[in-house]
Structures are given as structure tokens and as C-alpha cells.
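A reminder before we start the practical. When you read a complex entry, don't treat the lines as separate problems. The point of joint prediction is that each chain is placed relative to the others, so the output describes one connected object in space. Small molecules and nucleic acid strands, if listed, are placed in the same frame. In the example below there are two entries. Take a minute to note the order of the lines before looking further.
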Amino acid sequence: MDHTTAILLEVFIIFVAAQVGGQVARLVRLPNVVGEIVAGCMVGPSVLGWVTPSEPLEVLSEIGVVLLLFSVGLETRVEDLKRVGGSAFAVGVLGVLIPFVCGTLWAHSIGPDWPRSLFIAAAFVATSAGITARVLKQLGVLQRAESRVILGAAVIDDILAMLLLGVVTALQAGGQLRVGSLLIVLAEAIGFVLVIGWLGTRVMRRVAAWLDWPSDSLSPLALVLAMCLGLAWLATNFGLAAIIGAFLAGMIASETRQHAQLEVQTRPLLVLLTPFFFVLTGAKVELRELASGESLWLLSVATVLALLTKLAGGWLGALKLGARGALNVGVGMMPRGEVGVVIAALGLSAGVFSNQIYAVIVAMSLLTSIVAPPILAGLLKSGGETEHLRDDGGIACEDERPATESRPGKRPRHGF
Amino acid sequence: MDHTTAILLEVFIIFVAAQVGGQVARLVRLPNVVGEIVAGCMVGPSVLGWVTPSEPLEVLSEIGVVLLLFSVGLETRVEDLKRVGGSAFAVGVLGVLIPFVCGTLWAHSIGPDWPRSLFIAAAFVATSAGITARVLKQLGVLQRAESRVILGAAVIDDILAMLLLGVVTALQAGGQLRVGSLLIVLAEAIGFVLVIGWLGTRVMRRVAAWLDWPSDSLSPLALVLAMCLGLAWLATNFGLAAIIGAFLAGMIASETRQHAQLEVQTRPLLVLLTPFFFVLTGAKVELRELASGESLWLLSVATVLALLTKLAGGWLGALKLGARGALNVGVGMMPRGEVGVVIAALGLSAGVFSNQIYAVIVAMSLLTSIVAPPILAGLLKSGGETEHLRDDGGIACEDERPATESRPGKRPRHGF
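Here is the predicted structure of the whole assembly.
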């Protein structure tokens, strides 16, 4: 009980820090998410030390980002994703290949041997769908082609990144690459996404027509939340990120009659829980290790490399959307977020990364997450392709319009 | 990351178990909360072993019950509490005194010395406001006099129980009772409740008239959630339960213009998070220690004693409400819930309780929590004092009527 109440204080601090950070970011016309990450850095161990990442906070953070991707899935139809399948595939593959090759060459150039360099490069590959999804959702542009390409590419990206991590981990111990078992892992992950995403939505579409939820006791919300948590866990069993499962669950739920009502009900959950994800992401940066000229130089180069290689991959893959659309996709793929942090932590615990490299990779992941959202927001707002763009905070939740059955292609979103 | 995903499975199991348990309870016409606690017992270490109480789950559970009491506070006005202040005070005091005296005598009669007996009796004193509040909320009777007396008494009860725990802990080591410091503790706790509850609502009432929330960015929900988390933590600093602070925060928020909208927005939070509290409460019972005739006998006597003494205290204190109203109050005070479990855990770790006594007290706490809700629901439904009682599940959330400014005294509640 005592420890629980100690964490209650951290919960309070994280929640307030997110609100304050979001408001300050808004004042200087940056996306809320940037303010929340920076606030996390401030209250975290590096500066104020009011919040220390711990298991309970990690779980809250994980549930927060799972719900965020679920809500993004709720606004995404599998048909829309299929229509941009080719571009999404190209973006996913090129967005992994280009950063990986360039990352390996850079890493080797600063010292580590080839196996270690490959591991470091794996951190350049990661894409954090959560951060871009938040910006897209906040601007109300999830229905645009670029957004769908980014979301589809994030799924493919996650599959490839998982494979790559398997490969580079095997190479560290000088171990043999077992191509057969890697192919099985690949087939399983692809199978999971296809079966859940394609079959799940088809079944739900058929079932939703004649299935009226037992509305007075078991609410639709409880049912889809159970599905969301279940698929999030299942995804991790196939080596994928939990958010991939949550995103698929959201897509399945978007086929129900109640999807608009579910969107409204999901918003308060996002208000409470997503701050934990963004603040904790910020809290993980270690400023002390970066306090040398050499570290800062490494960080600068790594960040520029991470930004440009991902931009190149996304841009080349999405050229079908026109130069401007491809640029939006490239920028949208930039944030490494918590995925980069996780790979860095794996590298540190496996003895592959030095403390300095670890701190640089973590800081690079966060810098890309802070740099990309304002650029993306600026590009999307000046694009003029979408009407009704609202310069809105990410946490407004007062919009309780009755749910409508129609699915407007482009309607303004109110934060979450 | 790996451990986090392992807990994701437990999160999923807890959530599904709560839904299944709630539905089964509904089928046999018991309140959902009973089904959720029993489901917790089933998935917990005693039976299936799928869920092991751990710190992250405790934190989710704590946030769940904090939000539950916040939502109860949202439906409670401080004026209404004041009107029943006398009865609430009498119920609080008698509901502590009678179980404590009888509990001490019983505990001494089965073996332990006087100091230990006093500690055991402290577990008889606890009242779990969460369990009764859930039943009252579900039946839509939070506006009735009995409900207000129960809620007011729960606050007084918590203050007295905290004091008592301080006294019996001091007595264990054969230590001196420092009356002066106990009086300071008492004054601080009472001061906290009065200042926050009385002054907070007055300030909010005055402020709410001319304060229009910055509605397009920082939502009212985010503001009141911050207040809820902050006061929950602050309450623990004054030795009170976190839920007391959350309840006060809800009462303050009920003075805003947006209280009806806040109620609607709070429901999805309850759907997601309160199951953790009830399932985890159930998961804490240790059936193995109870598998002897002697233990079962002790458990039976302890449970009957706990039920009757609390009933007597509540009934005597609330006689002003008439015999039937007093009976409702007495039954409403019966559940010991997690508070009894916490005191038992304190006793075990302090070496005051044997494993057997610990298991008996925990099982007693849960049995009172399982027995009381159906009786209370039956009494309230047959009472006929309130119109519009709905035999509703505790988790329905489809009711998204636009928020109304008027505050109907008795309107049907739809579960959460």
C-alpha cells in the first residue's frame, strides 16, 4: 500500500506535467506531443528527478499507447489501407533498408566492429507509430492517403524491424544465422497481421450486420476493449509490438455499427492514459552521459542521419502520392520514439552498446520524436488538401456530439 | 519490455474475468461486483493461478477505485452530506466502536494476548466504501438519504480506523501511547477533510459561475482528473485512504457547470479500470490456508461477527432514517473489502498475525464484500422509495445522452 501511494504521487506528477507541457507547446505553436515529451525529460531522473521510470509506470504507459493505436485503428478501414498497400509496402521496406545500411556504415566508421555496428543500426530502423499517429489524429487527417500509407508502413516496418533484431542479435555471439527459423518467424508475423486484419474485419463486417450487442449489460466498449487488450498481447506473442495488435483491434472495431460511439467513449481513456506514454518516453533520456563535446557531436550526426535516411526511404516509397504527399510520408516515418529506446536498452543489457552509445541512441530517438511532429504538422496544415484543419490541443475532450452512423471522410477531429 | 508484455496478458485476463464474472452474477441475479470478486478468486493464485497480484496490477487497481469514488463524489453534493451529518457521524462512530469491542473480545477468546487481539479487531473496523458505492451507483440510488449517510460515515470511519490502527500498532511493541501525537494526527485528518470538502466546494461554486474552462485545449476532464489524482495522493499524506481524497475531488467537481458531461466521460474510465480493483480484491484470498475444519469454523464466526457488529453500529447510528433506512445503512457498511485485506497484510508483516489468522481475516473481508451487496440490492429494490430502479449490469456504457444542466434528484443510472 505504501509503495502504491508513493507511485500515486508520480502518477499525479506525470499527468500534470503532460498537461503543462502540452499547453506550453501550444503557446509556442508546437504539437502537444512535443511538450509532453519535453515535460517528461524535465520531471525525469535527468533534471528534476520527480519521476523514475518503474514497472507500474511502464505498464500504464504501455496501456496508454495501446489505447492510442486502438483509437487510430477505429478511424481506419482495412479497405482504405489496402488501397495504398503498394506504397505502404515500399515505404516500409525502403524505410528499413536505407537507415539500416547507412546506420551500419556510420556506426562502423566511429569504432565498433561489424556485428556491433549492425546492432546499432537496428536502432535507426525503428519507427514509433504512436507519435506520428497522435499528430495525425490531432490534426484530423487520419483519412488522408499519406496517413494510411504511414500506418500501413508502420505495420510492415515493425515486422521487418523484428526480423532484423533477430538477425543482429544472432550475429553478436558470432552465432550462426538460421535462415529457416527466421523465415518461420517472418511467416508467423505476416500470418498474424493478415489473419487478424483481413479475416477479422471481414468476419466483423458480416457479424455486425445481424449482431446487436447485448446492450443493457455487456457494453460494446467492454467487448472491444477486451479484444484490444487480447490482440495487443497476442501480437507480442508473434514478436510484434503490442500496438500493432491494438491497431488491428481498432480496425476490426471500426466495422461495427457502434464505431462512432466507441470513438467518443475512447477519448476520456486517451486523456487519462496516453500522457504516461509520452512523459515516460521523455523521462528516459540521460542528459549526464551527453555532457561532452564528443557525445554531442555523435548525437548530432546520428540524429541528422536518422532523420534523413528515414525521410529518403519514406519519400522514395511514397512517390506515387506526388512529391508533397511523399514528403509528408517521409517526415511521418521519422520519429523513433520508444522503439529506439527499447532497442538501445537491449543493446546495453547485451553488452553491445557502451554507456555513451546507449545515451546517444536514446537521445537520438527522442530528438527525432521532437523534431518530426512540428515539421509534419506544418506540412499538413500548409498542404491545403484537407478542409477543416483545426489548430487544436491534443487533449480536448468536451466534444460529446451524438454518434452518427455515417462515416465522414474528412471531419475535424478534436484532439483525441 | 518483456515483463511488461507478460503483464499485458494478466491485464487481459483480469479484464475478461471481470466481464464474465459480472455476466454470470447477473444471470443468477446478484450484483456484478460479486461476480467480479469471485472471478478474481478463480483466476488468482488460489485456484487457476493465471493472475498474481503485483505492483503494476495494484497500481491499476488503486487508480480504478480512486476513479470509482471520484465518480461517486461527482454525484454527491456537499450540501446533501451536511444535511445527514448527524446520522453519518453516529454511524461512523458506532460502526467503529461496536465491531472493535466485539472483535477484541472474540480474538482474545481464541488465543492471542490483548495487544494482538486489538490488532485483529482493527480489521473488523474497516469499511470498504468502494464496494457499497458501486452497488449504490449501479442501482441509481446515490441521491437517497441512506446513500449519503453511508458515504459520509465512510469518511468518518476511515479517519477513526486510521487512528485506531495507529493506537494498536503502538501497543504491539509494548510501546507508550502518545496521546498528544495521536490528537495531532486526528486534527490533521479532520482538517484535511473539512478544508478540502467544505472550502473546496465553496470556492469551486464561486469560481464555476464566472470561470469558463479553456475549452478548446485543456479539457475540463483533464483538469478534474488532475485534481482527483492530486487529492487522492494528498489524502494518503494525511494518513487517509486515497479514495477519500478522490471522493472529495468528485464532490468539488460536482459543483462545476460541466458535472453532467464529466459523469458521462468518467464512465469509460470506470469500464476499463474498476475491474482491476474488484478482481484483484478477489485474487487475494488464500484458499489453501482455509482448508481445515478449524479455519472454516474461525472464518464462519469471524464473518458473522463482522456482519452483525457493523450492522448493529450502522443501524443504531441511522435510526433517524426509520427502521428500514437504518437497516439499509447497516448493510451498506458491512463490506470490509480491500481495507480488511490491507490491515491483515500489515498484521502479517508485523508478525502479529499467524498465517491462519491472516487467511481468515482476508477471507472474512471478502465474504462480507460478497454477502453484503446482494442483501443491499434486494433491500433497496424492494424498498419502493425510489422510482426508476433499473436491474442493470455494472458495466453498461452505451448511454451517451447529451449532458443536461439540471440535476435530477432521482434518475436511473446505467451501471457505470
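Discuss with your neighbour: Chain B touches chain A through 64 residues (CB under 8 Å). What might explain this?
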